[in-house]
Specification:
This protein has 149 residues and is mainly alpha-helical. Helix content is 44%, strand content 5%. The chain has a two-stranded antiparallel ribbon. Strand 1 and strand 2 form a beta hairpin. The protein is globular and about 50 Å long.
Length: 149
């Protein structure tokens, strides 16, 4: 059986965002960041349930939504696999300088006394107020290999 991609869903029960939607959002974020690539297998519903203690039907609902959007496909007896990525090449070398600048900004924000929620609110507000960008900023959970501070 193929190994699952290195994605670990984090469920925030206090966020006000439904659990299935958190899985959908986190999967989309992983697709945008290149954590998930076409051909990768998502964790099975059983694996997600064991890691998060949520209802298996919730996981299946999230996966059905991702499938409806054409991002993943279920293969009977094999699992759920990524069909395509999002956000262009957000994980390629062209974005390395931007990533470095953001890391530098985060360091300066920490030095200025901002906490994670403060930075998220500031960044989200700026994204939401920038002309030409669509959709409200909705922070999601983290992935294996990504730090939450």
């Amino acid at each position: 059986m193929p190994e699952s991609a290195a994605v670990e869903f984090r469920i925030d029960r206090r966020s006000g965002v439904s659990t299935y939607l958190q899985i959908v959002q986190q999967t989309k974020q992983a697709l945008r960041l290149g954590v998930l690539r076409p051909g990768d297998r998502l964790p099975t519903a059983r694996e997600v349930v064991e890691a998060t203690a949520i209802n298996p039907n919730t996981v299946l609902k999230a996966y059905r939504e991702l499938e409806r959007e054409g991002l993943v496909e279920g293969r009977r007896g094999l699992g759920t696999f990524v069909r395509r990525t999002l956000g262009g090449a957000a994980h390629d070398d062209a974005h390395t300088p931007l990533r470095a600048e953001l890391a530098d900004w985060i360091g300066r924000a920490r030095t200025a006394g901002l906490e994670r929620d403060d930075m998220t609110a500031l960044f989200g507000t700026l994204l939401d107020s920038t002309p030409g960008l669509t959709g409200a900023f909705e922070p999601t959970g983290s992935f294996e290999g990504e730090t939450n501070t």
